[in-house]
Structure formats: structure tokens, C-alpha cells
Amino acid sequence: MKVLHTSDWHLGKRLPPFNREREQKAALLEIRDIAQNENADVCIIAGDVFDVSVPPATAEELFYNGALEIAKICPVVAIAGNHDDGERLKAPDALAKANGIYLAGGFDCSPLSYGEMQARAGGLIFRKNGERLNIALCPYLTESRRGDAPADDFSAYVKGVLAQITDSVFSDDGCNILVAHLFMTGSVSGEERELGAAKLLPPDVLPKCDYVALGHVHKPMKVAENAYYSGSILVYSFDKTPRREVIIFDTVTKEIKHIPLSSGYEMRTVTASSYAAALEELQSAGDAYVRLIYDCAVPLTAAQTSELERAGKLVQLEVISHEQKRESIKRAHRTPSQLFEEFYAVLNGGEKPDGELTGEFLSLIGEDA
Prior knowledge:
Blueprint: E1 2-6, E2 14-15, E3 18-19, H1 21-37, E4 42-45, H2 57-71, E5 76-79, H3 86-90, H4 93-97, E6 101-104, E7 117-120, E8 123-128, E9 131-138, H5 143-146, H6 154-167, E10 175-181, E11 211-215, E12 221-224, E13 227-229, E14 245-250, E15 256-260, E16 267-272, H7 275-283, E17 289-294, H8 302-311, E18 313-319, H9 322-332, H10 336-347, H11 355-364
Parallel strand pairs: 1-4, 4-5, 5-6, 9-10, 10-11, 11-13, 16-17, 17-18
Antiparallel strand pairs: 1-14, 2-3, 7-8, 8-9, 12-13, 14-15
Helix pairs in contact: 1-2, 7-8, 10-11
């Protein structure tokens, strides 16, 4: 069988003041076409279907219409990510699975049995043409989401939960895959840093299996021998790689195929040293979303700012303070002892530290007195 792995759709996500539903719809149709062209047997969505826990109705409509289009080709299996409300995601379960869409919002998948899908507590078993595909499902995992007490060792906790989930699904006579919304070591980037380093997980928490379909990180990447993030369907922030893709996993050959996605507009960061240059950058950007860094001693007027907003898709305007820049240059030419003495004076009403205290500070930072 062929498994199509996608994640982080973030339907309903905006780039104020711009709505991105048209781009998201194009991306879902692109995924449908890939499923058809690649003869996919199942489509996996590894979490963050929506951008917020209570998405707008237009985002929910976009998801169900898009999932139904893909389900005409192959079953669709989705888990809840940290941006999703698991209970809300699985609410239309009866209607969804009757149309080939299986929604795992929580940690008991046993109600998902329908037609060709046989459910266990930890996931689904899919049989086709004499082949058995075991799909273990782990939505975004925290102790509170599972109703567990806080763990002293979060990595050990996750490893134990994953073992429990896979034990009810995996078998020696089938192809075993894990679908999980986790934050793995080596994947820290941009907006995903919100979870904090304490939640970063080492690869050894993952169980032994044929493939791990991960969601949460927006950049496509490999984090272990057979564990991959497919990344988001659109570029959602200016610090992200423009590369977007879905992954096709062959359950027989175990081959991995990366198929690029082309939907969505570019996100571009530009720097301008004058109003005229800023205006030209925006006018030439076309449909690209623009983050403009304005580095000029002459400040923008309100009228000029309004004109820049009308000239293109201006999303962020960052004005560099030349007063701060001059102060940074001045500080760059001061010695560590001078900087310490100035800092001490600010905290102590202008009083300067004695030589012994300054010497101790320099010793701590590895500088000679």
C-alpha cells in the first residue's frame, strides 16, 4: 500500500489583514491530485487540522469539503494537534467515518470501527488486497490531555504512552506505522518553540516500527531513521523554509517519496533604506506577502505608511531606531569593565563599583582585569 503523509494544515489561519483560505483550498486540491496520481491507499493528517481550537465555520467547511474530495480516492485518517480541540475534531465522527474520514481527537480510538477500518484503543487496522496496515494514533500528548498526573520525566512518560498505544495495534504480520503530533529533538524552529525545551523529545521515545508520520513542525525534515515531519501545507511565517511537501510511504518496499507542494504565495523579507526604495520593493513584490524592514534615519509619515500598505501585501513593518543603533555602536566600543561599571551605576544611584567587585565580574565572564 501507499500511505500519503501530510500535516499542519492550520485551516483558518490568517496573515492579518489577509485571509488565506483561497490558498489553503488550492493546497487541499493539490493533495487530492497527488493522492490520485500516486494511487494512495490511505491519507494521514498528523495533527493541527485547524489553526485554533474553535475554528471559524469557513475553516470547518474547507476541511470537510477537502477531506471528502480526498476520501473519494482513499480513506482519510486525522489526529488532533496542539492547535485542535480533540473533542470538537471528533464530534462529527458518525458522519465522517461513513464517508471514509476517521477522526482521532482523543486517546481511545475504539469507536472508529467502520467498513474496512477495524479499530483498537490505540488506532486502526486497515486491510486491503491481503495486506494489513496497522496505524497507531497519538494525538498531541500532554499529561492533562490524557487525564494523567504530571510526570517527573516527560520523555519516559511519552515513551510509555506510545508503547501502550502501539501494543494494541501493531502486529508481526502487518506494516506498522505511528502517527503522532510530537516535538522531537532537532526540530526546534520558529513558532513551534512555544512548547519550551522541557517538552523536546529524543528519538528513542519512538517505538520500533516501519514508519513514523509526525506533525507539529512546519519544516519538512527527517528526525530519525524512519521518522519524518511532512511540514505545513503553506508557509505560515517569515522565518520558515519555502519548501513544502507531502510524503508517500510504500508499505512493501519501505521507500520514501517526497512530493513538493506549490500552492500559496511567497513570504518575502525586504530591507529598504528610504521611502522610495520601500515603495518600489512592495510594488514589485506582486502577490508575495512582505515583511518590510525600514532602515532609514528619516521616519515615515502616516501618509507614507498608508501608501505602503496600499502598494502591496504588507504584513509586517519593522522600523529600525537609529538612536538605538547609535547607542549599540557606542556600546560595541566599550570594554566589559566599562559596561559593568555603567550598569552598576544605574542600579546604585550613580555610585561606581570598587575595583575588587569589577575584578570578580571580569573573572566570572573570563576576562582579564
